[in-house]
Amino acid sequence: MIKLEDKGLLLTRKRTNLIARPDYTSTRMYQVKLMRTEDFLFATELANTMNWNMAQEDFQFMTQLEPEGCFILSDNIKHVGIATCISYGKVGWFGNLIVKDEYRGKGAGSLLVKHAIDYLQGKGVETIGLYAYPNLVHFYSSLGFTNDEDFSVLHVKNLASLTSESLLSVSKQHMRIIEAFDNRCFGGDRKKLLESIVLEEGNLNYYVFNGNEVAGYVAATVYDLMAWVGPLMCQEGNVDAAVLLLKAVLAKLSGKSVYVALPKKETALAETLSNVGFKEDFSVVRMFLGPNVSSNCIYLAESLERG
Ligand SMILES: CC(C)(COP(=O)(O)OP(=O)(O)OC[C@H]1O[C@@H](n2cnc3c(N)ncnc32)[C@H](O)[C@@H]1OP(=O)(O)O)[C@@H](O)C(=O)NCCC(=O)NCCS
Questions:
Q1: Nearest residue by C-alpha to atom 16 in ligand 1
Q2: Is the pLDDT score of 117 beyond 50?
Q3: What is the CATH number of domain 153-300?
Q4: Domain limits, the chain
Q5: Cα–Cα–Cα angle for 300, 301, 306, nearest 5°?
Q6: What are the pocket residues of ligand 1 if the criterion is a CB atom closer than 6 Å to any ligand atom?
Q7: CB-CB contact of 51 with 41 (8 Å)
Q8: What is the DSSP letter of 158?
Q9: Cα 150 from Cα 201, distance rounded (Å)
Q10: How far is the CA of 104 from the centre of ligand 1 (A)?
Q11: What is the C-alpha to C-alpha distance for residues 263 and 286, in angstroms, rounded to an integer?
Q12: Collapsing DSSP states into helix, strand and coil, what is residue 155?
């Protein structure tokens, strides 16, 4: 759920292996089904009514990561909504919620959220996170979510060139320590996501050490004309390492349209971004259902729909 202009037609993800799956469950008025390959077009067109500029590959990626956690809502005749979620052990993330305009206000959105909650809790998830538009905080509160932190989604259309120190890239043999570090900060095991982002050819990643420990790492998903910077995870208070990592990635993205989602309190990162032309596109509120798992690590989101 993010405006990613420039991505659409030029997006070149390399994700395949789609599997047909059975229907999941149904209610009296609506049916919630698992999203399948043939639903990606509907999902993409619906998402893009919100100017999220998503591509079918985005839903392909989501269904590969969480085959049983991507949903289509239908009224038995037509598809009317979508939502996705992903499980990371005890933590899960919810996103991509949209109901067709003419079906709103009749409980469909709440049904999709409740369905995803049931699914995630059934997998042993204890805390579900999401990023809410400020006008929907009340909607999610009524479903049990509580406010955690305000985030800004920042964007620059054409990133200027900048120089940075060269840092070490993460290779396959480093993934175990990066995943363990990420788990301590994030509160859930994001192995399946991190391996698909960090090790994906064409994407960027760097890490830094502090003595014998990982001090932080960053990854960016890179498309032909645009890029999303995140996740970035750094030890609490180690702002210097976070700025170093951020600059190392930005130095490789000049000329691109670049997006970042960060907590509003991260003023040093915000200043680094502002110095190279980033401006706030919109705000979101991170909310949790269940025990709050936020840590004091410095954090940029991987995406709004996956945390
Ligand atoms: C958010 C959304 C999925 C809700 O779907 P829905 O089918 O209308 O949801 P429900 O009928 O279950 O609505 C439940 C409540 O949320 C409120 N609500 C829904 N959309 C709202 C909005 N845009 N602004 C403020 N309140 C909203 C409704 O008024 C209703 O409140 P009430 O029960 O006190 O009357 C739908 O509005 C939508 O698709 N919006 C555009 C996409 C979007 O913003 N997605 C969320 C990204 S965080």
A1: 139
A2: yes
A3: 3.40.630.30
A4: 8-148, 153-300
A5: 165
A6: 1, 50, 97-99, 104-110, 132-133, 135-136, 139
A7: no
A8: S
A9: 32
A10: 7
A11: 9
A12: strand
How many whole angstroms from 109 Cα to the centroid of ligand 1? Answer: 6
Mean of pLDDT values over 102-114 = 96
Residue 127's CB: how many other CB atoms inside 10 A?
Answer: 19
Q: Which long-range contacts (CB under 8 A, 24 or more apart) does 7-12 make?
A: 7/53, 7/54, 7/55, 7/223, 7/225, 7/226, 8/53, 8/55, 9/55, 10/223, 10/224, 10/225, 11/55, 11/57, 11/58, 11/223, 11/224, 12/223, 12/224
Is the pTM here over 0.85, yes or no?
A: yes
Cα(139) to ligand 1 centroid in Å equals 6
For the stretch 42-77, pLDDT in tens is 999 999 999 898 999 999 999 999 999 999 999 988
Residue 266 makes CB contacts below 8 A (sequence gap 6+) with 242, 298, 299
CATH code: domain 8-148 is 3.40.630.30
